[in-house]
Amino acid sequence: MPGDGGHPGDGGHPGDGGHPGDGGRAGDGGRTKDGGTRAPRSGRTGRVRDDGGHPGHGGHPGHGGHPGHGGHGFHAGHSADGGIRAPRSGRTGRTGRARAGARPRGRGVRAATAALVLCAAVTGCGGGANADGSGGKAVLRFSWWGNPDRAERTERAVELFEKRHPGVEVQTSFAGYETYKQKLATQAAGGDAPDVMQLDYRQINQYATAGVLLDLGARDAVRTGGIDKGLLATGAVDGTQYAVPLGRGTQAVVYDTGAWRASGVELPRADWTWEEWGAAMAELSAADIPAGGEGGAGGTRVGGLDPGQSEDAFEMWLRGQGKALYTRDGKLGFTEDDLTRWWAWCDGLRKRGAVSEARQTTQLDGSVENTPLGRQQAVSDINWDAPASGYEAILGGPGSTALAPMPTGEDGTPGQYFKPSMFAGVSAATAHPEEAAALIDFIVNDPDAVEILGAGRGLPVNDRLRERLEPELTGFDRVIAAHHRSLEDRLKPPPPAPPKGDNALQTTFQRDYDQVSFGRKTPREAAAEFITEAKAELRP
Question: How far does the signal peptide extend, from start to end residue (predicted)?
Fold first, then answer.
C-alpha cells in the first residue's frame, strides 16, 4: 500500500493505514416520511408521531448521523407503528400510520438551506410562533429525532419538568432523522421553528448563521460549567454559544459477537489500525458465516459495510493521519489525492468481497435495521454508540452485540473523538426564551432527568452526573459506558462544528461514491467532481 500522500489507481490502497468503516450515516436521503405534531396536553385527543426511523451524530448525525449518532428506528417502508397517540391520562395506545415517498437525493437539503438564507436576509425570522396555553401557561414546542425508546424516556422527563414548572406546558413531537431534518428546515425557513429543537453537529452553523438560533451564552438559565469545554465549544459559532450538547457519543466498530467468534478471526484490539481492520473484514468474509434475516437463505456474510459512502468515516481516516475534514476557517482540509486514496481503497475492499456490495450501500435509510449487519448480511458495522443499542434486539438480545474501538492511523494516531451526540437549541423567535432555556438546563443538569434519560442520547455531558449515573446503568447503556471508559484520555479534542455547507455535502459525498461503487467513475474522477462541488458549496 502506498505511503501517506501517494495515491493508487482504481482499486488500490490508501496510505497511512487505510481507514474506517461506515460512520453511522444518516441515510441516503432517498425517502420522506409522514410527519406530525402532538396536540397540546390541555384537551388534546392524541398526536400523530412522525415515522421513527433514524440514524446515528451524532447521529448521524445522530448526532449524528448523521449524524451522529443518537438512536435508531425502522427501515424505510415500515409503518413504524407511529400513528395516533392518546393523551397520557387514560390513553389507549397507537394506531399505525405511515407512508413513504421517493425524492431526489440532496435536493431537499439544498432547497431548505437556500430558503434559510433567504429567511435570514429578508425577514430576519428565526422560527417559533408561540402562544400562551390555557390558564396563561407558557407553551413550548419541543421537537427531536429518535426511536420509541428515546421518545418514552423524553416524555417522562418532560412530565417531570412540567411538574417542577407548573407555569409551563411542553408540546412534543419526534421523528426519524431524515424526516426530522427536512421538516425542521422547512419550519425554520418559514419562521416556525420549535421553541426547543434537537440539532445535529452539522446543522448548527447552518441555523446559527441564518439567524434561527438564540444566543444561549447570554442565558443564565443554562448552566454549562459541568460540561467539558471541548464538547461545549462544538456548539459555538464565532464565539457565540448557539447550542448545548445533550449527550456524549463516539463511534465504534459494532459487531455480532456470536458470528465473529464463530469465524475464528481475532477479536478487535484496542490498538488495531485501519489496515488491520480491512484485513479483518476480508477474513470475516472468507469465513463463510451463514447470512440470516430476510434474503439471507443460502448466502454468507461479508465482514462489514462498505465505508466509502460515509463522510464521517472519511473524517476518522483523515484525523488518523493528522489531517482534518475542514480547516478552522471553513475550507476543505484535504486534497483530491486524499479523497482518491480513500475511495480507491474502499473500492478495492468491495471488489475483493470484504465489504458489502453497492446495492446494499444505496439501500441504507439511517436505521440499524436496514444496514447489512441489521439484515444479518454482515458481521460488523461502524456506527455511533447510542444507535448501536438497536442491534441487540436483532442479533439475539443481551450479549449479542459488542463495541470495539475505532482503528488508528499506522503510527497509532486516533481519528476517533468524543463528540456531542446531539445538541439542543432555542429558536431566536421564541416568545418564552427563559422557559426554553430552563428546559434545556433541566435535561442536562437535573439529576432526576439525567437518570430518566439514561444513555438514550449518549452518555450525560454533565461530568459529575455522568460519573454518578454510570454505576446504575443497565443493559446496553452499560456497554456504551464501558466503551467510553476504555477511551478516556486517549482521544484528541473534537473538531469545531462543520461549516454550513456540510449538511448538503454529506449527500453529495454519498452520491459521488455511488458512481464509484457502481463502476460509472473511477475514484479519481469522482474525487475531482466532489472537490469542485464542495468548493462551490462552501463559497461564502
Answer: none
The verdict on domain 251-416+501-538 having CATH code 3.40.50.300 is no
Q: 300 is written with which cell numbers?
A: 454468507
Options 3.90.330.10, 3.30.70.20, 3.40.190.10, 3.20.20.80; CATH of 138-247+422-474: 3.40.190.10
Contact 405, 45 (CB under 8 A): no
> What is the arithmetic mean of pLDDT over 480-485?
94
| Least confident span in 73-77, 129-133, 270-274, 510-514 | 73-77
| Residue type (1 letter), 243 | A
Domains 138-247+422-474 and 251-416+501-538 share a fold: yes
- Which helix (H) or strand (E) segment is 416 a member of? none
The full 3-state SS of 29-41, as one line of letters, equals CCEEECCCCECCC
For residue 59, the cross-strand partners are 62, 68
Q: Are 381 and 402 in contact (CB under 8 A)?
A: no
- Helix 502-517 × helix 523-537 angle, to 10°: 170
Could you tell me how many helices (H) and strands (E) the chain has, helices first? Answer: 17, 17
Average pLDDT of the chain is: 79
pLDDT band at 423 (very low <50, low <70, confident <90, very high): very high
- pLDDT score of 236: 93
At 434, which amino acid appears?
Answer: E
C-alpha cell at 211: 439567524
Write down the pLDDT at residue 362.
Answer: 79
Rounded CA-CA distance 476/517 in Å is 34
Which residues have C-beta within 8 Å of that of residue 489, sequence separation ≥ 6? Answer: none
Domain boundaries, the chain: 14-128, 138-247+422-474, 251-416+501-538
Return all residues near 330 (Cβ < 8 A) that are at least 6 apart.
205, 499, 538
Rounded to the nearest angstrom, the gap between the alpha carbon of residue 415 and the centroid of all alpha carbons in its chain is 17
Q: Between the ranges 4-8, 250-254, 293-297, where is the mean pLDDT highest?
A: 250-254
In whole angstroms, what is the distance from residue 115 CA to residue 499 CA? 17
pLDDT tens digits for range 177-193: 878 988 999 999 999 99
C-alpha cell at 148: 420509541
* 469-490: average pLDDT: 92
pLDDT reported for residue 6: 33
Q: Pull the grid cell for residue 519.
A: 463502476
**Do the beta carbons of residue 205 and residue 435 sit within 8 Å?**
no
Residues 242-274 as b/e (b if ≥16 CB within 10 A, e otherwise) read bbbbbbbbbbbbbbbeebbeebebeebeeebbb
